[in-house]
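lol forgot to send this yesterday, sorry. struct tokens for the thing we talked abt
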């Protein structure tokens, strides 16, 4: 199972859904009685669901440490073998879970078993992420690093819209909507943004992906070359930070695919 740190989830989800809850309309959150958020991590989506629905929202994850960041009710469990009776929820939802699973259709079938009304999945298409930056070359290098990373992963991290998977799981799609999550770095810089740029300049950021990138076509020498270019971009970003001119916008498209049962 691919592991995530609480810090990564909390920072990458900051502000997510703040101004675009219309993309969640097909979930009919205002009339839900019992919702299950599968692969909830630190509960970033769980909080949004709890704010929008009058019903109870249960967070489930296979990682005990991440779950400790979520207020109860919460449950430890596996998305492909949910520890609930059939029809126990009127909505089962996940965010950025299926892109990490080797058998996403198996998980969807399990979602359909424990839901009596709707299944919704919110998944990114990481192949169409865009970066704009005041540091020349950052966007191109980020794209290259992503592409080398995709070569090394064994799950579909470019999933986005999940209609084909729904069909394979025997689910009828009610609707698909898109939400572009923007992560903006600009003055005044947050402590998290500063830390992320420091990790870029030291090489620590790209280093966490070394194993995955090397599992693809990339040779160790090519990885070292990528890492030194990454560090140079980080150093240039730090220089721009000092006069407040550094700006970066990353846009990650998320697709919300919803089925009625
Ligand atoms: C990218 S994180 C998404 C977390 C959260 N949904 C969000 O968007 O902030 C993927 C989550 O799925 C969990 N996960 C991975 N495989 C799982 C499985 N088989 N069953 C349950 N959770 C799983 C991970 O522990 C992690 O918390």
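and heres what i got for the seq, position by position
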């Amino acid at each position: 199972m691919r592991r995530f740190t609480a810090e990564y989830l909390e920072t990458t989800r900051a502000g997510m859904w703040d101004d675009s809850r219309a993309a969640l309309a097909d979930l009919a959150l205002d009339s839900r009685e019992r919702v299950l958020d599968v692969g909830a991590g630190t509960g970033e989506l769980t909080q949004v669901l709890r704010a929008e629905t009058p019903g109870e929202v249960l967070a489930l994850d296979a990682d005990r440490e991440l779950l400790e960041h979520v207020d109860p009710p919460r449950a430890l469990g596996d998305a492909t073998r949910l520890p609930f009776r059939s029809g126990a929820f009127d909505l089962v939802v996940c965010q950025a879970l299926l892109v990490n699973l080797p058998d996403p259709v198996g998980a969807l079938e399990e979602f359909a078993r424990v839901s009596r009304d709707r299944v919704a999945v919110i998944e990114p298409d990481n192949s169409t992420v865009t970066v704009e930056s005041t540091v020349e070359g950052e966007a191109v290098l980020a794209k290259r690093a992503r592409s080398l990373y995709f070569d090394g992963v064994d799950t579909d991290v470019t999933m986005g819209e999940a209609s084909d998977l729904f069909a394979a799981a025997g689910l009828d799609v009610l609707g698909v909507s898109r939400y572009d999550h923007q992560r903006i770095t600009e003055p005044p810089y947050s402590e998290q943004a500063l830390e992320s740029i420091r990790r870029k300049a030291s090489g620590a950021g790209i280093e966490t992906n070394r194993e995955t990138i090397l599992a693809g076509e990339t040779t160790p020498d090519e990885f070292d070359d990528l890492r030194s270019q990454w560090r140079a971009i980080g150093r240039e970003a730090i220089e721009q930070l000092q006069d407040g001119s550094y700006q970066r916008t990353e846009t990650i498209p998320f697709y919300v695919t919803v089925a009625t049962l």
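The chain is about 35% helix and 25% strand. anyway ping me if u want another try
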